[in-house]
Amino acid sequence: MNTTEYLSKWAISYKDDIINNIMPFWMKYGLDREHGGVYTCVNRDGSLMDTTKSVWFQGRFGFIAAYAYNNIEKNPQWLAASKSCIDFIEAHCFDTDGHMFFEVTEDGKPLRKRRYVFSEGFAAIAMAEYALATGEKEYAKKALDIFKRTLHFLNTPGFLEPKYLSTLPSRGHSITMILINTASRIRMVIDDPSLTEQIDTSIAALRKYFIHPEFKALLEMVGPDGEFIDTCNGRVINPGHCIETAWFIMEEAKYRNWDKDLLQLALQILDWSWEWGWDKEFGGIINFRDCRNLPVQDYSQDMKFWWPQTEAIIATLYAYQATGDEKYLQMHQQVSDWAYAHFPDKEYGEWYGYLHRDGTVAQPAKGNLFKGPFHIPRMMIRGYMLCKELL
Q1: Of 72, 166, 178, 217, which shows the fewest CB atoms inside 10 Å?
Q2: Does position 6 have pLDDT exceeding 90, yes or no?
Q3: Is a pLDDT exceeding 80 seen at residue 165?
Q4: In angstroms, what CA-CA distances link 194 with 127, 187, 201, 331?
Q5: Residue 104 pLDDT more than 80?
Q6: If we measure between CA atoms, which residue out of 171, 233, 235 comes closest to residue 206?
């Protein structure tokens, strides 16, 4: 492989895709120019299927639009879209207790609230990235305030409804990993000791509780002290989540001058998770595995979703940057070739989200409350940046 040619090709591809495909699609079909914010429930051709708004995606697209502005090109329409999402969040998405909603109507009336605090994390990174783009420090302070409020919710017994009753005390990987990325994005614009402290706390928790060498796996759910829970849910490996965690840790290792212990941890997670996740028969990263190789309960267990592929693309580029080991560039090529052969819609633009195991399209919509303009554009922006750094 000619590395320079390979990285140059992908750098050009990522930038072109963001500017001429992904952002135009969502600016045209997603951005709500009447009420503010973004719609994501759109069909294959971009036509609106449901006006319900995902609160997650107000923050996610608020972040992406500013992230693209900061790292791809200074497009004022992207910055305005970021501000639209942030304004919608501030006007409509917080309940009176400070906890955010999960779904709202197109004009911002609350529909649903859940026990999660992911909406808060995405709102915070949107405000942090917008502050980076504009220099408006008030948004950096707002991001930090949301972050600290999130920690308060998580650390206040009884505030957030637990996933299980007290008969099954447990802890989850998702919130542990997302706080690493949330804190690191906010730290780009404001210096506060709580940010690095939380990153250290999350990484320590991953080491202590979730990594199970006996399975060569990072588990999604464990007991309060990391105990293995031998149930269908306790045995779940989510390769995409684990690979995403790996690059979050690599990013932190890089921030700390390629800290060797953090890098070793991240590479171990990536290697294990790739082994569990890569489908040797059909290609692509599979949704779920059971750490004892028993049948997986989730009905989508053998499907190929869009986001695990994008996380693997980022993680393998980071791993190559960190190590210079060509095996990671070969992994990048494997997952990229498979993803780009199956997910992009050559007729209407953007990517399908849900494929069967063999790569055929399961359903053609471009978005819903969970899929929208986040993982794909983040991969392209981050991928472009990494390729340029490597070159």
Answers
A1: 166
A2: yes
A3: no
A4: 17, 10, 10, 35
A5: yes
A6: 171
Q: Report, as an integer, the average pLDDT of 242-257.
A: 98
Cα 94 from Cα 91, distance rounded (Å): 8
69-99 tens-digit pLDDT: 999 999 999 999 999 999 999 999 999 999 9
Q: Is the pLDDT of residue 168 over 90?
A: no
Q: What is the DSSP string of 319-385?
A: HHHHH--HHHHHHHHHHHHHHHHHSB-TTT-SB--EE-TTS-EEE--S--SS-SSSHHHHHHHHHHH
pTM exceeding 0.85: yes
Q: b/e per residue, 342-376, with b = 16+ CB within 10 A? A: bbbbeeebbbbbbbebebeeeeebbbbbebbbbbb
3-class DSSP assignment, residue 94: strand
pLDDT digits (tens, 9 = 90+) for 175-206: 999 999 999 999 999 999 999 999 999 999 99
Q: Which two tokens stand for residue 8?
A: 């140059």
Domains in the chain, ordered, with CATH?
A: 3-390 (1.50.10.10)
Compute the distance between CA of residue 170 and CA of residue 226 in angstroms, rounded to an integer. 8
Do residues 64 and 30 touch, judged by C-beta distance below 8 A?
A: no
pLDDT value at 239 more than 90: yes
- Both structure tokens of 287: 């949704």
The answer to whether residue 263 scores a pLDDT higher than 80 is yes
Mention every residue, 6+ apart, whose C-beta is less than 8 A from residue 70: 129, 132, 133
Beta carbons of 293 and 278 less than 8 angstroms apart: no
Mark out the alpha helices in 76-136 (DSSP H runs).
Answer: 76-92, 118-134
Element (H, E) at 41: none
Which one-letter DSSP state was computed for residue 236? Answer: E
C-alpha 270/C-alpha 247 separation (Å) is 8
- With beta carbons less than 8 A apart as the criterion, state whether 83 and 23 touch: no
Is the model's pLDDT at 164 over the cut of 80? Answer: no
Q: Is residue 318 within a helix (H) or strand (E), and if so which, with residue range?
A: helix 306-323
Residue 160: its pLDDT value, please?
A: 80
**Amino acid at residue number 388:** K
Q: Which of 303, 336, 299, 332 is nearest to 315 (CA)?
A: 332
Paired tokens of 112:
């649903």
Q: Helix 306-323 and helix 326-342: axis angle, to 10°?
A: 160
